[in-house]
Amino acid sequence: TSCSLLRPSQLMASSRRHVRLTPAALAAAEAAAVATLAGAAAASRTATATKVATAEAEALANLAEAAARSRDVPRPPKAAPPRPQPPADGPPGKRKRVEEE
Fold first, then answer.
1. pLDDT digits (tens, 9 = 90+) for 14-34
2. Contact (Cβ atoms closer than 8 angstroms) between residue 60 and residue 66
3. C-alpha to C-alpha distance for 37 and 26, rounded to whole angstroms
4. Nearest-CA neighbor of 14 among 33, 26, 1?
5. Sequential DSSP letters for 17-30
6. pTM (2 d.p.)
C-alpha cells in the first residue's frame, strides 16, 4: 500500500476488512502511536510554557508602566506643615490676668 490519502469510498471499503497484524507489526504500531502522543504532549507543553512566559512578560510590563505613572503623581509632604507660632503673650488660656482695680 502507498502512503497517499484515501478517498471516503476507499476508507469505507478498507474499514470493512479485518487486517491481522503480526505481534511485531502491532508493537511497532503501538510504539509509533506512543511516540506521536509524546511528541504532541511535548509540543503542547512547549506552547503552554511560551504562552505563560509571554503573559508574565506582559504583566511585568504593565506593572512597570503603572509604577512609572504613579511616580508622576504629586505626593503628600513627608512632614506636617509648620504650626503657626503662638502670640508673644503665650497661649490663649494662660495669659496673665489683668487685675481689676
1. 556 677 889 999 999 999 999
2. no
3. 16
4. 1
5. S--PPPHHHHHHHH
6. 0.42
